[in-house]
Each structure stands twice: as structure tokens, then as C-alpha cells.
């Protein structure tokens, strides 16, 4: 293999690596934006309501976790997440806390 061919192959590998990294960065920014919009909406809907809802977003797929006092709150949190632009799916793992 000539030096010129090796240099071209090296350049292509670097370009591919940069393109992949840029795509991952853009995707994570979108996930952070989705996460922030969901958390903000949840805080407006359930201010100090005895809820703890954790939100994780991966490529537009949202996982909700945590605890709430009532089943309606868990369903409401899921409805909020589903309504956010860019969300592809919601996995609702929120548990309803029994007792007072």
C-alpha cells in the first residue's frame, strides 16, 4: 500500500469518526431537551404533591420511574411525557406508594 493510499484511508476513518460523534452529540442534546420539557411539565402538574418522578431519555425513548401517591398521577405523568414533541415511546415504571 502506498503512503498516499494509507493517508486517504486514514482521512476517511477520521471523517467517519467525526460524523458519528456529531450525530451522538446532537442526539444527546435532543434527549436533554426532551427530558427538560418533561420535567418542567411534571413540576407544573405536580408541585409538591408527594411525587418523585425520575425521567431518563434515550434516543427519544423515555423511561419514567419513581413513586407517586395515586395511580392517576402515574397515568398523568405518562400522558405528559407522551405529549412532548420528539418522544417516540414511554416506558412507565412509576410505582404507587401504598399507605400514607
Automatic annotation (TrEMBL):
Stored PROSITE patterns: BON (PS50914)
Domain BON: 30-98
A Pfam family matched in the record: BON
InterPro entries: BON_dom, Lipoprotein_DolP
Gene3D superfamilies documented for this protein: 3.30.1340.30
Protein name, per record: BON domain-containing protein
Source organism of this protein record: Humidesulfovibrio mexicanus
Amino acid at each position: 500500500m502506498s503512503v498516499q493510499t494509507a493517508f486517504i484511508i486514514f482521512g476517511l476513518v477520521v471523517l467517519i469518526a467525526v460524523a458519528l460523534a456529531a450525530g451522538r452529540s446532537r442526539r444527546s442534546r435532543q434527549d436533554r431537551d426532551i427530558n427538560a420539557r418533561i420535567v418542567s411539565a411534571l413540576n407544573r402538574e405536580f408541585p409538591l404533591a408527594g411525587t418523585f418522578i425520575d425521567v431518563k431519555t434515550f434516543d427519544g425513548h423515555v423511561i419514567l420511574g419513581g413513586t407517586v401517591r395515586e395511580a392517576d398521577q402515574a397515568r398523568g405523568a405518562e400522558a405528559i411525557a407522551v405529549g412532548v414533541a420528539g418522544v417516540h415511546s414511554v416506558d412507565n415504571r412509576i410505582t404507587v406508594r401504598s399507605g400514607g
